Amino acid sequence: MALSPKATLPISLLLLLLLHLPILFSTTVSGGEEEFSEELLLKPLPDRKLLTHFHFQSEAPITHDGSFATHHHLFPKAISQLVRKFHIKAMELSFTQGRWNYERWGGFDPISSSNAKPPGVELWAIFNVPPHQVDAYWKNLTHALSGLFCASINFLESSTSYSAPKWAFQSALGSLRYGTLPREAVCTENLTPWLKLLPCRDKAGLSALMDRPSIYRSFYHSQRLHLTSSSAGGDVLNSRIILEQTLTVVLQPNIPRAGMNYVSETNIQPSWSLSSIFGRKLNGRCVLAKSSTVYLQLERGLVTQLENLQKDTAVFSANDTGSGDFRRNVGFELSVNPSKVHTEMEKSYSILFEYPIKEYKDSEQFDLGLTWKHPLVWSSPHAPLYASRFLTGSGNERGAIAISLKSTESTQGFVATNNEERCKLQVDILQIVPWYIKVYYHTLQIFVDEKPQAVKDFVERMRVSPSEDKVSPGMMELVLKFPCETKSAVLNIDFDKGFLHIDEYPPDANQGFDIPSAIISFPEFHAGLRFSDNATSESPLLSKLQEKSHVLSYSEVLLVPLTTPDFSMPYNVITITCTVFALYFGSLLNVLRRRVGEEERLLKNKDANKGLLYLALTKLSAKLRGRSSESAQPLSPSSSSSSSKSSISPKLVLKVLLVAGIAVAWQYYSQ
Ligand SMILES: *[C@@H]1O[C@H](CO)[C@@H](O)[C@H](O)[C@H]1NC(C)=O
Ligand SMILES: *[C@@H]1O[C@H](CO)[C@@H](O)[C@H](O)[C@H]1NC(C)=O
Ligand SMILES: *[C@@H]1O[C@H](CO)[C@@H](O)[C@H](O)[C@H]1NC(C)=O
């Protein structure tokens, strides 16, 4: 089609403009130095499950006067306003459903140390304000977050529900406040506002994979928002605020029900693909993201097993492809070839396959799949001590909390590397209890290898702030040092159960009361992967995985039954009293209003009227029945009335039966 030169000129101008638009856009983005990246980590877990970990990071610079630029391209404005208004130095908010299984899913890797969270809501924040103002800021912050995330975070406002740990948790950062709501139900209404903070929401990029039924059907899901400002280093000019949003989901891939060789297939790991676990494929990346990458991680234990398998099969095939080449390996098959493979520098190493999403065009969809070819059994690395917590005692008066620590294979490794005379293992414990659990801190007992021991031999430091009724919760911070060869240790502490006022009970008081998770950390152990190449520092997720964070685990939430009043009793009393009153006043009014003389006259009138009324009724019924009434005309009124009665009564009986039938059916189906 030939166009006149006059027509081509505006078109070419338009084209020029269109061509330059992306350049203009990108310069403004890089000029504002706001960055956003999206990443997804997939990791097969030993118990036939799959860990999916979404990681989104937004960064924005802070201007010289300490505030942000008022306009943001990528960074969520709601968060920047929050930071500015409440002078937040660091903050973390997590919503979790389910419990991280430290035994099966591991407790010695960056994901479990920083993304395994206690059930319900956990919030901590560090403020950049004078110490006496911190509580006021915390209260206002809980209200702001409550509105932002459609959750009852505002319950953390009450001084009975938060505390200020000094050194057992996130130490040396400043004025910290910490609070949890173990009973908060987490649902999609909390995820939607969280997704709204992303520049592409869940419309494009990796977040488009977030299929709500798959996420909420999972064994564990935790959505987290972590905020830090890097101005702590003192360099005011280059300070930045970093918002990290993660969603960690543990899913069970669908197990195909192939019947043929069922016995041999029971041990093989279930094969999966992105489309089979989330029900959709990846259409492309979020265009606003600086990097958009999918990673597949194979744990150290799994890599060791794969190598063993490789060696076994290499006997049969003389062609040894080498341990580094996992693309053509015997253990499993990947549907897409990775563009890069990161390996750790350790003796036993983990492997990370990298898939940059920018290479996938809109027409072709990205769907990473993994098919297992051989059954493999491995285990995830465990924390030095496996911690669990339980209640002892019975009755409604008193009980005891016990924290049990059991050594795992990591402890033995630690002993091997530190084979000095007096090797010690440090354990920090933070335990917060609500005020109605009155803990007697002097009753702390320690059993090491099932023998009672003096507390001062093992407790290095201890800080206790006892609870105050209806004012503040009790808190205990402990630093324990155990000899490395310790097999097990149990801490036991007694408590009395308190009484609550009737309006302090939660709606379902008979369920019991929750004691928040204890935090158990191992400051001498660092979870972190060590990759050999330098390129990994470009990716926020990889630098997060390489960060040396403390190994940390949360204990179970305990459910304590307290004495609860019988809440149905007041209602029974109220209903009975009301009935009695109604009967009394009803009969009283009846007696008071009755006039005997009047009534007698009325009765007489009624007798007189009855005949008239009767006649009128029979006439009406006769008219209604039309012709049949004419045949009945000659009959006496008494016989006609009896015939009318006999004609009406079957209908009545039918109606009554129908209503009864409906009632019975209703009763039957509504049960
Ligand atoms: C907290 O909110 C209240 C009510 O809106 C306000 O009066 C108070 O000044 C706020 N305090 C801080 C520290 O922001
Ligand atoms: C090993 O296999 C590769 C391709 O699979 C082939 O090119 C190579 O010649 C083989 N080497 C030996 C020693 O068989
Ligand atoms: C990684 O970076 C360090 C310095 O930052 C450099 O000495 C080293 O050679 C780099 N290694 C690779 C493999 O590029």
TrEMBL record:
Name this protein carries in UniProt: GPI transamidase component PIG-T
InterPro entries: PIG-T (IPR007245)
Transmembrane feature ranges: 571-592, 652-669
Keyword Transmembrane helix: yes
Keywords: Membrane, Signal, Transmembrane, Transmembrane helix
Cited Pfam families: Gpi16
GO process annotations (BP): attachment of GPI anchor to protein
Phylogenetic lineage: Eukaryota, Viridiplantae, Streptophyta, Embryophyta, Tracheophyta
Keyword Signal: yes
Signal peptide start-end: 1-26
GO cellular component, one term: GPI-anchor transamidase complex
